[in-house]
Design brief:
It is a single chain. This protein is of the alpha/beta class and about 325 residues long. It folds into two domains: about 160 residues, Medium-chain alcohol dehydrogenases, catalytic domain (Quinone Oxidoreductase, Chain A, domain 1, Alpha-Beta Complex); about 140 residues, NAD(P)-binding Rossmann-like Domain (Rossmann fold). It contains eleven helices and 17 strands. The chain is globular. The protein starts with a strand and ends with a strand. It binds NADP nicotinamide-adenine-dinucleotide phosphate. NADP nicotinamide-adenine-dinucleotide phosphate binds next to helix 1, helix 3 and helix 4.
Length: about 325
Amino acid sequence: MKAIQMEETGGPEVMRLVDIPVPEPGTGEVRVKVEAVGLNYSDILIRESRYMSDVPLPFVLGREFCGTIDKVGSDAENWKIGQRVFGRNTEGGALAEYVVTRPILDVLPDGLTFIQGAAIRVQGRTAMLLIDHVAKVQKGETVLVHAAAGGVGLLAVQIASARGASVIGTASTDEKCQAIAELGGTPVNYSKDDWVKEVLAHTDGNGADVILDSVGGDVLIRSYKEALTIFGRLVVFGVASHETIQLTNRDILASNKALLGYWVTPFFDNHRHLVAGAIQDLIELAQQGKVKLAIGKTFPLEKSAEAFNYMQNRKNIGKIVITNQSSESSSS
Ligand SMILES: NC(=O)c1ccc[n+]([C@@H]2O[C@H](COP(=O)([O-])OP(=O)(O)OC[C@H]3O[C@@H](n4cnc5c(N)ncnc54)[C@H](OP(=O)(O)O)[C@@H]3O)[C@@H](O)[C@H]2O)c1
């Protein structure tokens, strides 16, 4: 079968289209014929060896997928051949024609396409848990979302709006800002305007009640010190800038503001019900028409390196999906 494999970590050049044997499901595993793979920022970090933990090499990239079960191993008989499923494989392997997985799977609801199914799990549970479980966003609050036109960002804008919050979203281009506005957020193009000033202007000088930050560095410091209201909550869930910060004990205690962290990996195994609930909540919001699963662009498997470049060059608006069909498409 075709697969996108790396034998060493690095830039897009390490991503090779290879022919490898179709994997066989072992005990407790199922095999899925992959139709669509969701690209996440973490896939780039894994390829570059900048993720929180390294992967064993050679490594078939891709962790979030959607497709049809085509073989069931022993002790996995509750899963059926022909079921349409969406899932995530910590061990990678999804950028291929088939993936074997120890099921972290859900049945794809009727009415959702394979491509939409590849856009639910990772960014969806992140946005959902950030808003409902970590920041505990309340009706009437103001929520500032950084990188708001990205995969997590556009979902967070919509989920926070659905919870009755007023949402401000930052992004680097007018096109991205337009997407944020279309999905209910108040956009701020930080390439043109000072985003802190804009946030203060939108909040009568008080600052936002909640800030979701995946950028880090200066954005994190300014969010905490200048753009967050007293007793507000800042959630740090990514470091796209790769910039570290310095905060002293005094900075934190004198701020009267809550600094919260979110990373799914350490709590996932012991809180699967929480994650599963978040995914179901998102599906309900999508089915009620309150959240749009915004697919920005799709790429065929052979062009996976282009898809990674597209995301790394910050061109994506919403989700990037890599498919096992040979066409490429763009939508808003
Ligand atoms: N903690 C967790 O469990 C968890 C889970 C999922 C995702 N995440 C994190 O959430 C963030 C969003 O993930 P995603 O998959 O939805 O990606 P994404 O938001 O679609 O892409 C990242 C966006 O971040 C913005 N950005 C700002 N400064 C950047 C910089 N210096 N370098 C690169 N991008 C920069 C860019 O938007 P602009 O051009 O508009 O600035 C870019 O498009 C990532 O940082 C990811 O690691 C964390």
